[in-house]
TrEMBL record, chain A:
Bias kind Pro residues: ranges: 98-107
Gene3D superfamilies membership: 3.30.1150.10
Region: Disordered, residue numbers: 50-139, 167-264
Protein species of origin: Shimia gijangensis
GO BP annotations, alphabetical order: cell division
SUPFAM superfamilies for the chain: TolA/TonB C-terminal domain (SSF74653)
Keywords assigned by UniProt, alphabetized: Cell cycle, Cell division
Name of protein: Cell division and transport-associated protein TolA
Automatic annotation (TrEMBL), chain B:
Family per record: Belongs to the TolB family.
Superkingdom of origin organism: Bacteria
Key words, A-Z: Cell cycle, Cell division, Periplasm, Signal
Cell cycle keyword on record: yes
Summary of subunit composition and partner proteins: The Tol-Pal system is composed of five core proteins: the inner membrane proteins TolA, TolQ and TolR, the periplasmic protein TolB and the outer membrane protein Pal. They form a network linking the inner and outer membranes and the peptidoglycan layer.
PANTHER family linked: PROTEIN TOLB, PROTEIN TOLB HOMOLOG
Protein's recorded name: Tol-Pal system protein TolB
Length: 360, 438
């Protein structure tokens, strides 16, 4: 405890002794610099500033020489330019005065303008759609052919490529040549209606969707026809002739008739060859023609006109020719009809009615 | 009770059998066909005399171009032919023509003797294997070989379609030259296909709306050579003309012959009012047929001479009206949107062609004589002035293109709206009028 007091007393004594004998209370002042200051008035100060800002005259600039008159004045001539000669127009070839411009149509004052609400055409009952009718649609490709079933245009022809490729060499190990299937000609492009120039600007959306054709219901095949008894070899030639004549005579058809699908098949086969001249008088004529088919489905004998409705004799004759061409042209190898029902299609009558076509 | 049930059962069975059995032939009705050009072949005609080979080939080409131009026929090119016809009298190998799907075949022969030309031909229905009609022979001069070709084509067309042709016909029109603001117009005449162009007037005065007489030897037209529109009549053969109506203080225009060619319908403007009048071709007295304060013009008379269709703005805008040929109360027949004008009665008598302006576009259209079944056939910046072919199957009209450098040209279109095409004419052309068949 006493040691702390001794240390503190010694330190204080040392500090007091340094202050007394170390020079902390010396009498001489430290040295400092002294500058001379002169007092001036405001006028004198402004005069001194103005003297510093005043430009100093340049003494080295050369004064420009005054131009002499003879060098710069251009020489003037006393002659005036000649006036352009005006050609006197020939009275015979005098150009006609410009046509009096047509005054523009008067624009009515705003007060005369009346707002007219656009009239909206009510949609027809058959067009229960929300899209606007005049929506721009892709244009239909013009086709010379109009048919019940539209046909898309064929793929573009093959073009020669710029890049030359090496041909492949046939493999010798394959001795059997494979016959390539023959490519069928693409059907001619067709549309389902005549698209006149006036129709091309309207919306081309179909007004009604085309219903898919129902597949004919499959029916059990009828039992095969029983073969008729052939005359025995021992019978006389007269009997054979009579029997042959009886065989040629069309018997009353028996068994189930053609199904609707089979009839439709025959109808489609003929109608795709039936060319209708919709602008001609024959388009006003309905004809019914009759003909016979052999067992191969080929026309046997003449095609005859049974009846007609509408048009004069020339139009009827033209309509009949068109119907006959359709039947003969589309038979090709024979119409595909069920042979077991031959008795039902041995004789056929087809009515060609162009009434629907006229509306297209 | 049991007996009654048995009877009913047996009856039903019999009815079922009867329904199942098919009496008589198979009957089918076809209502959908195809619309397409009929493929046909017309090989070069047989030259039966020396020096006739070129004409034989050229005649076949004229026939083919006429038929192809209708849009109803499609020629099978000669390189596809299997058979060659070297003798006009030889039987036709129908199988060869069937193989290339030629539905019709035209064979012909030509013989030349000095300036005389003889052409004969036959038409065959290939698939029926028989001739359509009998062979026919034309005699003429070598200078008129093109016209003989048209005659053959008319006969072929008639035998296949059952209708009269229109190839041996001419068209009178207004030939136009120069810029749009200084256009020179004069009457011209040509074959229906643009060949044999001839001018009937000079271009010193503006001429408008020429119309053939029923016999094709005279032309009515409107000229401004007196300073005012006046109706003139011109003889096609001599090119002599005379003013038809020159009453002081009047203007006359839009003339058209009556079906008998004895009188003329026209519009006459007097005291600011335009009405339809009729006057005899060789007379001076006119008779007024309409009497309304509106503009009544563009009259066209029906082929039977009983009715007149014309345009009038009596309802407030331009519409079509029909009235009796002797005058009477007109009946409005056009009720669609837009304005209707320049009606022309079809030579068949069943349709009226017209110009329609609607929503900034012009159309050529047809309608029934009662105004029903309106169909628009064309659409462009400016289509106007329809004229019927002599068989009433084709319509020729003026189409003008837009802009200061726009030009007028003649176009034709089938009455069905198909086969729209430009008529080959040198220079600008407008206001066509088809002649009757020559």
């Amino acid at each position: 405890m006493h040691i702390g007091h001794y240390i503190s007393g010694a330190a204080h004594a040392g500090v007091i002794g340094w202050a007394l004998w170390g020079g902390a209370f010396r009498d001489e002042p430290p040295p400092f610099e002294v500058s001379g200051v002169s007092i001036v008035t405001t006028e004198q100060f402004e005069a001194a500033l103005a003297a510093e800002r005043a430009p100093q005259p340049e003494t080295d600039v050369t004064a420009p020489q005054a131009p002499t008159q003879a060098d710069d004045v251009p020489s003037l001539t006393s002659q005036t330019d000649d006036a352009p000669a005006l050609e006197t127009p020939d009275s015979a070839e005098a150009p006609e005065p410009d046509a009096t411009p047509t005054p523009p149509e008067e624009v009515p004052a705003p007060s005369q303008l009346t707002d007219v609400a656009p009239t909206l055409e009510p949609p027809s009952e058959e067009m229960a759609v929300l899209i606007p009718r005049d929506t721009t649609r892709p244009m239909v490709r013009p086709a010379d052919r109009v048919a019940p079933e539209p046909v898309a245009p064929p793929e573009p022809d093959t073009v020669v490529d710029d890049v030359v490729k090496e041909t492949t060499t046939p493999d010798d190990s394959v001795s059997e040549t494979v016959a390539e299937p023959e490519e069928a000609t693409a059907p001619e492009a067709a549309t389902t209606e005549i698209v006149t120039e006036a129709k091309e600007q309207v919306a081309l959306a179909p007004k009604a969707s085309i219903r898919p054709v129902l597949r004919p219901a499959s029916r059990p095949k009828p039992p095969a026809e029983t073969t008729t008894d052939t005359p025995s070899s021992s019978s006389s030639s007269t009997d054979a002739a009579v029997a042959e004549a009886l065989a040629e005579t069309p018997a009353a058809p028996s068994g189930p008739p053609l199904s609707q699908g089979e009839k439709d098949s025959m109808r489609v086969s003929v109608q795709k060859c039936w060319v209708v001249d919709v602008g001609g008088q024959s388009a006003n004529v309905t004809v019914t023609v009759g003909f016979s088919l052999d067992r191969d489905g080929k026309v046997k004998g003449p095609v005859t006109l049974l009846s007609s409705d509408g048009g004069d004799s020339k139009a009827v004759d033209t309509a009949f020719q068109s119907a006959r061409r359709a039947i003969l042209r589309c038979q090709k190898g024979g119409y595909k009809l069920p042979i077991e029902k031959y008795d039902h299609w041995r004789e056929i009558e087809i009515t060609f009615n162009p009434e629907k076509m006229r509306l297209k | 009770m049991m007996r009654l049930l048995a009877t009913l059962l047996i009856g039903l069975m019999v009815l079922g059998q009867m329904a199942q059995a098919q009496n008589g032939p198979l009957r089918i009705e076809i209502t959908d066909g195809v619309i397409e050009p009929l493929p046909y072949a017309v090989p070069d005609f047989v030259a039966e005399t020396s020096g006739a080979a070129e004409l034989a080939s050229n005649l076949a080409r004229v026939v083919a171009e006429d038929l192809n131009g209708t849009g109803l026929f499609r020629e099978i090119p000669a390189k596809a032919h299997i058979s060659q016809i070297t003798n006009f009298a030889s039987p036709v190998q129908f199988a060869d023509w069937k193989a290339i799907n030629a539905q019709a075949l035209v064979s012909g022969a030509v013989s030349v003797s000095g300036n005389d030309l003889e052409v004969k031909f036959r038409v065959y229905d290939v698939f029926a294997g028989q001739e359509l009609g009998n062979g026919l022979r034309f005699k003429g001069t070598t200078e008129g070989w093109r016209r003989m070709g048209h005659k053959v084509a008319d006969a072929v067309y008639s035998r296949i379609t059952g209708e009269g042709g229109y190839f041996d016909s001419r068209v009178v029109f207004v030939s136009e030259s120069g810029p749009k603001n200084d256009r020179r117009k004069r009457l011209a005449i040509m074959d229906y296909d643009g060949a044999n162009l001839q001018y009937l007037t000079d271009s010193s005065a503006i001429v408008l709306a020429p119309r053939f007489s029923p016999t094709g030897d005279k032309v009515l037209y409107t000229s401004y050579e007196t300073g005012f529109p006046r109706v003139f009549v011109l003889d096609v053969g001599s090119v002599e003309r005379r003013v038809l109506q020159d009453q002081a203080g009047t203007m006359s225009f839009a003339p058209r012959f009556s079906p008998d060619g004895k009188s003329v319908l026209m519009s006459i403007t007097q005291n600011g009012n335009t009405d339809i009048h009729t006057m005899p071709v060789n007379g001076r007295q006119t008779k007024r047929l309409t009497s309304s304060p509106s503009i009544d013009t563009a009259p066209s008379i029906s082929p039977d001479g009983q009715q007149i269709v014309f345009e009038s703005d009596r309802s407030g805008n331009q519409q079509l009206y029909v009235m009796p040929a002797g005058g009477g109360e007109p009946k409005r027949i056009s009720f669609g949107q837009g304005r209707y004008g320049t009606p022309v009665w079809s030579p068949r008598g069943d349709l009226i062609a017209f110009t329609k302006q609607n929503k900034g576009r012009f159309h050529i259209g047809v309608m029934r004589t009662d105004g029903s079944e309106e169909r628009l056939l064309t659409a462009s910046f400016l289509d106007e002035g329809p004229s019927w072919a002599p068989n009433g199957r084709v319509i020729m009209f003026t189409r003008e293109t837009q802009g200061s450098d726009g030009t007028a040209a003649l176009y034709s279109v089938d009455v069905s709206g198909r086969n729209l095409k430009k008529v080959k004419v040198q220079g600008g052309a407008s206001d066509p009028a088809w002649s009757p068949l020559q």
